[in-house]
Amino acid sequence: MSDDFESRLESAISRGQRRADAKVSQQRQSELSAEELRRLHTSYRLSLSDRIESAINRVADHFPGFQNESLFGEVGWGSACFRDDLRIVSGQRTNQYSRLEMVIRPHTELNVLDLKGKGTVMNRELFNRSHFVAVGDVEIEEFEQLIDAWAIEYAEVYAAKSRS
After folding, report:
1. So where are the chain's domains?
2. How confident is the model over 46-55, as a mean pLDDT?
3. In 3D, which of 120, 117, 104 has the Cα closest to residue 150?
4. Which of 6, 20, 72, 139 is spaced 20 to 30 A from 95 at the CA atom?
5. Phi/psi at 110 (5° precision)
6. pLDDT at res. 31
7. Mean pLDDT highest for which of 5-9, 38-42, 85-89, 93-97?
């Protein structure tokens, strides 16, 4: 009886070890390598920076006087549009600065895709937002919808404020 117990015990231990080894192997395969994460980030960045540029250019096209600017480097990759208006009211001169900026921030060791957006309408900050998701979990449509929503929100507020 003790021989039977001993063999069953050893068999159970070896099954448990094989199960643990299989689980570790499966986890390693499912985790993306650092190089793969970097490659994915670059792919998403290229796609989304084109989307950002298109959205910002369309906003600028609807409001004459905006100048477009491409952004790249340490701050990220994206686009901005801005204008600096001079207003003279009762002999008083004031400048009113407006800017819409969106960028995809550079890849970091955190392995996240980070969309940063800033909007300023006539010297007042409208929004300063960041949206980030782990590179392995990115749904590109979610980022595209955010880019469009932020651009549309900015256009709506700018249109309302520029009339007053």
Report:
1. 1-31, 32-163
2. 97
3. 117
4. 72
5. -75, -15
6. 66
7. 38-42
pLDDT digits (tens, 9 = 90+) for 74-97: 999 999 999 998 888 888 888 899
Spatial distance between the Cα atoms of 68 and 83, rounded to a whole number of angstroms: 9
For residues 123 and 159, what is the distance between their CA atoms, to the nearest angstrom? Answer: 15
First to last CA, the chain: 94
| Residues 63, 151 contacting (CB under 8 angstroms) | no
Answer whether 132's CB lies under 8 Å from 106's CB: no
Predicted TM-score (pTM) above 0.85: no
Task: Point out which residues pair with 98 in neighbouring strands.
Answer: 83
* 3-class SS of residue 131: strand
Residues 47, 113, 157, 128: what is their CA dihedral angle, to the nearest 10 degrees?
-150
Cα separation, 81 vs 79, in Å, equals: 7
- Contact of 114 with 131, CB cutoff 8 Å: yes
Which residues, in sequence order, are CB contacts of 44 under 8 Å at separation 6+?
Answer: 104, 113, 135, 138, 140, 143
Mean pLDDT, the chain, integer = 90
